[in-house]
Amino acid sequence: MCDTLALRHGGVVWFAKNSDREPDEAQLVVRISEARNDTAQKLRTTCLEIDQTAYRHGIILSKPFWIWGAEMGVNDRGVAIGNEAVFTRVMEKKPGLIGMDLLRLALERGDTAAHALDVIAGLLEKHGQGGVCGYRAKSFRYDNSFLIADPDEMWVLETAGRHWAARKIDTQYAISNRLTLGSEFDLSSDGLIDFAIQRKLFSGKGDFHFAKAFDTWLVPHFARSRERIDSNLDFCAAIARNRQNILLAMLNNLRSHRHDESNPRNGHNSDVCMHAAGPLIRKSQTCGSMVSKLEGTHPLHLFTGTSAPCLSIFKPVDFNEDNDYGVLNADGKTVKDSLWQRHESVHRRLLFLKEERADVKKRIAATEGKMVELLFDKNNHLMPENMHDADTLAADLDESLIREFQRRSVPYPALGLYGLFWKRVNKRDEYFEKDSTSP
User: Fold this and answer.
1) Beta bridge partners of 148
2) How far apart, in whole angstroms, are the C-alpha atoms of residue 195 and residue 201?
3) Is pTM beyond 0.70 here?
4) Based on the domain organization, do 213 and 139 belong to the same domain?
5) Residue at 341 is within a domain
6) Strand ranges across the sheet with 315-317
7) pLDDT tens figures, 242-256
8) The CATH number of the domain where 72 resides is what?
9) Are residues 227 and 201 in the same domain?
10) Which of 136, 179, 206, 274 could pair with 215 as two cysteines, CB 3.0-4.6 Å apart?
């Protein structure tokens, strides 16, 4: 499960996403250079081969390591996109482009938010969407919704099979694992209403409602997608009322839980920051997070590159290839020695260490406060010349935490399904157990 939000505040568009995936599904942050006059004719995506394009924008992605596409990202034209799994009545079973591939293709090819929407719509209608979307859960498939933003515009795009509807957003919007568009969309696929009538999903009488026609109820209900959307919209409304540092507020919103001081084992599916607790309770956890300030002159992009934003520091990155930021990884199908893998030695121990968990959160907050002081002047203008120093602050904290926790034993509780679940996950992930001392 996932959550994405976009907000226009003070003339600036802010974009944020938590990506919830399987708890041992590493999510890597990669930076891929622009391509000019590429002679390749074909491109192999996760499930499908399609035509390649000669020119592609530079992109920064947060992506599950085993797939071609990405959960979220931004391009060098200032377009940011996040996608959400939705479980419609018309999902196709045959392979197509999975939502994460559509997201990456739109960032590579889209000049603006509206153009990126057109890219997704065209590819969707041509190739369809479908294919395995789970790392270990090979039967996991879904359709997709997208939040797309640039410094000037924001769009929500929701899909059902090869059909879609889109709406231009004025000030704020949030999406999760359900359809949100009713009759108020601005654009749609050709033949959308006729298709719904043909499938007996709409009677043809009265106003057509996209979500009522195509959405299902089971997964959205148990995933508490409505509650998470409402939580993000409440946050956006609070930003409009209160004077506060919006960057720190955006970061902390992605860390929010139903109960602020809750133990991770007592988390809830309505939490924006999700903690896995077992296959029958909460299968997913937040495996990567992103916040972007989309500003034409001096944009700012921050990614965790690690699990659990409440136990992670956000790290800056940009498109200056002279800067080798600590959050970046090679775009490959291995997690060995990645920041995500190394940070798991911290994350998976802190799940069971109450006092240490509270201390780490304080250290993260203090470091991010220093980063904000480095990155913004008194007029709240970004100072890009300080990106390297901010990155060093974040990297130093990460390395300090990894050294501190990687050799400690994991204090699994003697009783309870939560400890048993994580013990099994850790045993399955041989790289983790190798660095552990038996309790």
Assistant:
1) 81, 155
2) 9
3) yes
4) yes
5) no
6) 172-175, 2-9, 12-21, 285-294, 300-303, 315-317
7) 766 899 999 999 999
8) 3.60.60.10
9) yes
10) 179
